[in-house]
Amino acid sequence: MILKIVKYPDPVLSRPGEPVTEFNAELRKLVADMFETTYAEQGIGLAAPQVNVSKRLLTIDLSLGKEPKDKLVLINPEIIFSDGKVYAEEGCLSFPEIREKVSRHAKVRIRAQDEHGKWFEMDGEDVLARCFQHEIDHVDGMLFIFRMSALKRDLALRKIRKMQRDGKW
Ligand code: NI
Fold first, then answer.
1. How does strand 119-125 pair with strand 107-113?
2. Rounded to whole angstroms, how far apart are CA atoms 7 and 13?
3. Considering only CA atoms, which of 153, 57, 135, 33 is closest in space to residue 92?
4. What percent of the chain is predicted at pLDDT more than 70?
5. How far is the CA of 135 from the centre of ligand 1 (A)?
6. What's the confidence (pLDDT) of residue 20?
7. Which residue, of 45, 101, 150, 160, has the greatest Cβ tally within 10 A?
């Protein structure tokens, strides 16, 4: 089922998600729906607060649904190691048409639980590292516009207000 993606400034996006404690069929259905929603929107990552579920859960698939082994589910995730800095462009499904450069760590190691509650660790570099950081920010209630410079954030917010006025947001 394709879920509705909430857009900024919906308050659910700014609220830290609750830890996931039940690894049941309902959770697995949400995960499946989140992947389906991400593919429908041509995205590479989605966090539960973006579908109005205030939980510490995110899905990533850099292959856009082409490689089943690339499907990643991170539950109760945290970054346990980071290194380097990269300044590169990113976007967000909750900010349609906004793309801007944001500074992120070049490499990160994450720790998270899978759909069955099993803990694992994983290293990410480049786009995957960026995606881990962007989506983990979401479950912490942090949005990428607040990682931009003040000047770029003001420009983005102005563009959003214009789209809202024009009924395109
Ligand atoms: Ni996002």
1. antiparallel
2. 8
3. 135
4. 100
5. 6
6. 98
7. 45
CA of 85 to the centre of ligand 1 (A): 19
Q: Using one digit for the tens of pLDDT, what is the confidence trace for 115-130? A: 999 999 999 999 999 9
Give the rounded distance of the alpha carbon of 51 from its chain centre.
11
pTM for the full predicted model: 0.96
Catalytic residue among 89, 97, 115, 135: 135
Determine the Cα–Cα distance for residues 134 and 46; give it in Å rounded to an integer: 9
Q: How far apart are the CA of 119 and the centre of ligand 1, in A?
A: 24
Q: Give the pLDDT confidence of 44-68 residue by residue, as tens digits.
A: 999 999 999 999 999 999 999 999 9
Active site annotation includes 89: no
Ligand 1 centroid from CA 13, angstroms = 9
For the chain, the domains span: 11-165
The 10 Å Cβ neighbour count of residue 84 is: 11
Q: Name the CATH superfamily housing domain 11-165.
A: Peptide deformylase (3.90.45.10)
Distance CA 73, CA 8 (A): 23
pLDDT digits (tens, 9 = 90+) for 144-165: 999 999 999 999 999 999 999 9
